[in-house]
Design goal:
- The structure holds 2 protein chains of 2 kinds.
- By secondary structure, chain A is of the alpha/beta class.
- Chain A folds into 2 domains: 183 residues, Rossmann fold (3-Layer(aba) Sandwich), CATH 3.40.50; 128 residues, Rossmann fold, CATH 3.40.50.
- Chain A has 12 helices and 14 strands.
- By secondary structure, chain B is α/β, with parallel strands linked by helices.
- Chain B contains 12 helices and 9 strands.
- In chain B, the strands form 2 sheets. Chain B has a 7-stranded parallel β-sheet with strand order 1-8-9-5-4-2-3, sandwiched between helices. A two-stranded antiparallel sheet of chain B has the order 6-7.
- In chain B, strand 8, helix 8 and strand 9 form a beta-alpha-beta unit.
- In chain B, helix 1 crosses helix 3 and helix 2 runs parallel beside helix 3.
- Chain B is globular and about 80 Å long.
- At the A-B interface, helix 3, helix 4 and helix 5 of A face helix 5, helix 6 and helix 12 of B.
Chain lengths: 326, 365
């Protein structure tokens, strides 16, 4: 066991992926010599060489587009989008080809591609560096949409994604890259894609979240226990698509109340899907309307305003208290 | 001092071997044997007759919208004729001749235009990608395949097709950028058929040729008479030989003409003159090659009739195979999306099944 931050944990997963399968390659802008702008690919070029860890020209569309051709030829590309805000230049390849090839060819050609990208706010970055657009990918058939939230699950989910036969959009909450350390097993560890995790057990209300918002959610849960004697259960989605309805429904069937928390805009966001599934699957267990604490339906403010904008523990606690008195 | 001429590539060539009056430049003649010449003729004629059959099937409502290839047969056959089965072909959406030569069954080609995903189920043993609809989006795939070949130390090549309109897309630029930087065995065929639906070649880019774009990426480019199958054959084979030997990518602009409509949903009379079409009709690649072969004594009326009868029989059985395979299961839309179907999709598939039963839809198999 080693105490690792999320950057080191993701790095470990890629090192393991490169070491165990010669077809795995890392490709992206500044991932080699510079070791990634967040240093997530640190020492990988030195260890595996320029044929496995590839600095590409500055063209997101071609990073993903050539990954399609590489995957057709038996490679397993792990692509880095430097920031999720620039991945739209590759979105036509993701939507048009990555997500479709297996279905289009009736199973002949799968697309074992991972597209990693840092997302979300909180690091005082300029425009296009703070958005949370996971819903765009979750809306897209043929993709898996995974979002890690701690060093240990980051390593386990990324290694699983690299081994996965289908394309995975892997969102990394950059606010958590170096936020805290966690014990990460030395031996390769994976977690199944498509499974949510009950991070904190509770009885009175269910909080559903993922990514960087897990921190204020857990903080709120602790505060609610201390201040109100409320026992909140916290579910970390981990995989946004395909969503683990069973785990969230089991929790809400037990607690009867739910608040969903995410950074991304509310309308047609992941929270809307969570609420719809809960209404479909456990309506008669609900004791109160389900609340959404999310980013508002506006463009993410420039960083002078971002801390005010981002949902925090206070906003979550207030929603929980209002839900509990219904 | 600091203001001086910068040397850029001056290697750009134009190649024509057989002109529109079927006169050959003997110094450039690849001297192909009679069987090869006859095969090129047979394949171009197959492409033409298949195209005519597809148009008829569309008019009869037996397939959907179709993008005809009339006039571009020499580009298709000349570029793919010598490829190995281990090479990869990345098609656009107007390469039925290439598909036929690569071994795609006629029935399979028809299935795409008939509205069946089965038309994209690349047959085992064929290293091609299926039809790519978004213009130029397939070009990075060509580069990725070629890159994979280089990584794995193979002497195979990847060849891909795009039209003149596609050269304006970002994916064209990005694919050629990568191909140059990583020096991959990729061959990009630009079928310059002069029209991107209603938009003329002159309005795609102000550059005099599309081939010259290659020099911007530091790769070789050549412009060929795309209605001269010998020129297309020679230029492509030079590019293939160079790529196999580690010499990197090539851009080939084949100058031809789309004699028919963009698709059967398009009316070209709205944007181009009949006189222009008539001018290009005289440059028809089949007329030229037919005349050359007859003058050379490789082809005569009897052989031509035999070839046509063979092709018609192939087309007939292809259409029959297509029409015999129309009874498909709509529930298949869930089957191939992922290697393992997620629980949510299992539930949706059951819901779809229930809906179909309720609506009395007969399940094919």
């Amino acid at each position: 066991m080693a105490q690792l931050n999320m950057v080191k944990a993701l790095n470990l997963a890629m090192r393991e992926g490169l070491a165990e399968d010669e077809n795995v390659i890392i490709m992206g802008e500044d991932v080699g010599q510079d070791e990634g702008v967040f240093r997530v690919t640190e020492k990988l070029l030195a260890e595996f060489g320029p044929d496995r860890v590839i600095d590409t020209p500055l063209a997101e569309g071609a990073i993903v587009g050539t990954a399609v051709g590489l995957a057709l030829y038996g490679m397993k590309p792990v692509c880095e989008m430097q920031f999720s805000g620039f991945a739209y230049q590759a979105y036509h390849q993701i939507e048009g080809h990555v997500s479709r090839f297996r279905n289009r060819t009736r199973g002949r050609f799968g697309m074992p591609i991972v597209v990693r990208m840092p997302f979300g706010g909180g690091i005082r970055a300029i425009e296009h560096h703070s958005e949370s657009r996971e819903a765009l990918y979750a809306h897209n058939p043929g993709l898996k949409m995974v979002i890690c939230s701690t060093p240990r699950n980051a390593r386990a989910l990324l290694l699983e994604s690299i081994r996965h036969p289908d394309p995975v959009i892997f969102f990394e909450p950059k606010a958590l890259y170096r936020a805290f350390k966690e014990e990460v097993p030395d031996e390769p560890e994976t977690m199944k894609i498509g499974k949510a995790h009950v991070t904190r057990a509770g009885e009175d209300i269910t909080l559903v979240s993922y990514g960087a918002m897990m921190r204020p959610v857990l903080e709120a849960a602790d505060d609610l226990a201390d201040e109100d004697g409320v026992s909140a259960e916290v579910v970390d989605l981990l995989t946004v698509s395909p969503m683990d309805t069973e785990t969230i429904a089991a929790s809400v069937s037990k607690t009867g109340r739910c608040v969903v928390v995410h950074e991304g805009p509310r309308t047609c966001g992941v929270g809307a899907e969570v609420v719809a599934r809960l209404v479909e699957s456990c309506f008669y267990h609900l004791e109160a309307p389900i609340r959404r604490i999310t980013g508002y339906d506006v463009h993410f403010p420039y960083f002078a305003r971002e801390q005010a904008f981002l949902p925090g523990a206070d906003r979550i606690k207030r929603a929980v208290r209002e839900t509990l008195v219904c | 001092m600091p203001r001086k001429k910068i040397k850029v590539s001056d290697k750009l060539e134009y190649l024509q071997i057989l002109d529109e009056k079927a006169r050959i430049d003997e110094s450039l003649d690849p001297e192909l044997d009679g069987d090869t010449l006859l095969n090129l003729h047979r394949l171009m004629l197959t492409t033409r007759l298949l195209d005519e059959r597809m148009l008829a099937l569309q008019r009869q409502g037996r397939i959907g919208t179709y993008a005809p290839v009339r006039g571009q047969e020499a580009v298709q056959i000349g570029t793919c004729y010598t490829l190995r089965s281990s090479d990869w072909v990345v098609q656009s959406f107007r390469e039925p001749g290439v598909c036929f030569h690569r071994g795609w069954p006629i029935g399979s080609i028809l299935q795409f235009w008939g509205g069946y995903e089965e038309g994209c189920a690349v047959p085992e043993g064929i290293n091609d990608t299926p039809i790519a609809v978004p213009v130029a989006s397939q070009l990075p795939h060509v580069m990725g395949l070629a890159w994979g070949m280089k990584m794995k130390g193979k002497d195979d090549v990847a060849i891909g097709y795009v039209g003149d309109g596609g050269t304006s897309e970002g994916d064209f630029h990005e694919a050629l950028t990568f191909a140059g930087v990583f020096d991959a065995p990729a061959i990009f065929i630009v079928t310059n058929n002069q029209w991107a639906i209603s938009h003329p070649r002159s309005r795609q880019v102000r550059a005099a040729t599309l081939a010259q774009k290659a020099s911007g990426y530091g790769i070789d480019g050549i412009q060929v008479d795309g209605n001269d199958v010998l020129a297309v054959y020679v230029a492509t084979n030079e590019a293939i030989d160079k790529a196999r030997a580690g010499g990197g990518p090539t851009l080939i602009e084949a100058v031809t003409y789309r004699l028919a409509m963009h698709t059967t949903a398009d009316d070209p009379k709205k944007y181009r003159d009949d006189a222009e079409v008539a001018k290009w009709e005289k440059r028809d690649p089949l007329i030229r090659f037919d005349a050359y072969l007859r003058a050379k004594g490789v082809l005569d009326d009897k052989m031509d009739e035999e070839i046509r009868n063979d092709i018609k029989a192939t087309l007939k059985s292809g259409v029959e195979a297509y029409e015999a395979a129309r009874d498909v299961d709509p529930r298949d839309c869930f089957k191939y999306l992922y290697e393992d179907i997620p629980a949510e999709l299992v539930a949706q598939a059951a819901e779809f099944d229930e809906a179909l039963r309720h609506e009395g839809v007969t399940i094919g198999h």
